[in-house]
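Please decode residue identities from the backbone states below.
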């Protein structure tokens, strides 16, 4: 990509010389005699870098820098100055200039400084683009769903996003809890600050405290350097605590203290760090029942559940499935070389009847697999994964008669889905966990609880 550089000076002869040097280096060059002309150029067409003299009559290079920082905050400015005014150039850098070049200009120095400034501009521009894409993707009105249940969710997000209130998002695995957390962040006043997500179920228990609070060098075996924890990374922004129900009781007490006092100490340090972090927690477990069992702290539960948002499973919002199919086909299609692909009425009907135990995550995986399997502009019933042709056994049997052993039914359903996922992935537990919408650690615990031995006999 060719970059455009705007040169600003009150001497036209120097503009021509510099312009020739930069054009020989492969850049497109614009020239402005004085700062007012430069501002007019910036308003007329996009520029990747401004190279300006410091001392100019009327509006100085410093005045120009101040105005550029106000109107074009990520546009890099390089200052040209005589060696006798280097102190002024250093002050310019403190005020937002990228760098300065001494006069007379050396080609090698010019080439290196301009290249470095343009690399910075490209990175900042890409970051700004990604940020705007994220903000657009997670607008409240951008969340897919016409069902009454999803309308309640979007209403709740709109209500709570502008505040700093702690939110607890509940729902089955794959229902989109992190999407809701990001929507809360990007629709609130912290949208310019970090959004940091941490999954309590995916981190070994002995590393959880360091993961959340960081550690100092030498705090424990293997701590070869200082490490910044997730709370510090999220300072000023939002910390998303996923799978909060899997957090050990000892760590729950420390998380509670941070929520109450907004301060913590890194592992191995006596220095207290203060943080301003908004908490959005999520779980697929019944925290109320865990409190009654003594496996989750009651005080932490009430601290987290200030504003609860419950996400419905996909089987309870089937009217949203056609919208989700179109959204995923539009998003995933270009990534796999398929554009403008739709689902046939027969395929859509099958997908509407399926119960989606993995919820939206499973639907997304299904769309990707169907895009890869199909040919032509329409995905037919024959292009769908075989498992969608019949509803899960637990959805067909046993739920129509009472009395029933609910625990046994749920246990049987869990075992059947784990076995099906292991068979689908030939025993690769990482892939099986992805299909089930849970962490590999959670799958390992469930396999152990169910007494499943992953052997060829099981997978046959």
């Amino acid at each position: 990509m060719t970059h455009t550089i705007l040169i600003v000076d009150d001497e036209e002869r120097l503009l021509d010389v510099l312009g020739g040097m930069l054009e020989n280096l492969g850049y497109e060059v614009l020239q402005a005699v004085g700062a007012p002309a430069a501002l007019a150029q910036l308003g007329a067409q996009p520029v990747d870098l401004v190279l300006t003299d410091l001392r100019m009559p009327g509006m100085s290079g410093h005045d120009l820098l101040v105005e550029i920082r106000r109107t074009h905050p990520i546009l890099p400015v390089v200052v040209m100055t005589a060696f006798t005014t280097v102190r002024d150039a250093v002050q310019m850098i403190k005020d937002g200039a990228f760098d300065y070049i001494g006069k007379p200009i050396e080609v090698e120095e010019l080439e290196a400084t301009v290249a470095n400034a343009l690399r910075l501009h490209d990175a900042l521009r890409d970051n700004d683009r990604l940020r705007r894409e994220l903000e657009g993707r997670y607008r409240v009105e951008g969340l897919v769903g016409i069902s009454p249940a999803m309308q309640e969710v979007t209403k709740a997000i709109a209500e709570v996003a502008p505040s700093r209130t702690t939110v607890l998002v509940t729902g089955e695995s794959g229902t989109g809890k992190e999407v809701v957390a990001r929507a809360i962040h990007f629709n609130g006043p912290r949208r310019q600050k970090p959004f940091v997500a941490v999954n309590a179920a995916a981190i070994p228990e002995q590393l959880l405290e360091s993961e959340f609070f960081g550690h100092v060098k030498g705090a424990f075996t293997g701590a070869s350097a200082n490490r910044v924890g997730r709370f510090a990374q999220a300072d000023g922004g939002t910390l998303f605590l996923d799978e909060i129900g899997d957090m050990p009781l000892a760590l729950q007490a420390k998380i509670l203290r941070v929520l109450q006092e907004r301060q913590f100490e890194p592992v191995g340090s006596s220095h207290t760090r203060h943080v301003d972090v908004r908490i959005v927690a999520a779980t697929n477990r019944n925290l109320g029942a865990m409190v009654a069992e003594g496996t989750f702290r009651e005080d932490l539960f009430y601290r987290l559940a200030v504003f609860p948002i419950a996400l419905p499973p996909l089987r309870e919002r089937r009217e949203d499935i056609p919208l989700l199919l179109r959204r995923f086909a539009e998003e995933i299609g270009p990534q796999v070389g398929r554009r403008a692909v739709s689902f046939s009425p027969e395929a859509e009907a099958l997908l509407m009847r399926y119960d989606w135990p993995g919820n939206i995550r499973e639907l997304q995986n299904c769309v990707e697999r169907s895009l890869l399997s199909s040919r032509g502009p329409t995905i037919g019933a024959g292009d769908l994964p075989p498992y969608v042709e019949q509803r899960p056994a637990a959805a067909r049997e046993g739920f129509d008669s009472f009395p029933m052993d609910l625990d046994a039914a749920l246990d049987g359903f869990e075992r059947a889905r784990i076995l099906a996922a292991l068979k689908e992935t030939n025993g690769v537990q990482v892939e099986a966990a992805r299909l089930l919408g849970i962490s590999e650690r959670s799958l390992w615990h469930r396999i152990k609880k169910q007494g499943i031995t992953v052997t060829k006999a099981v997978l046959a």
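Observation: The radius of gyration is 29 Å.
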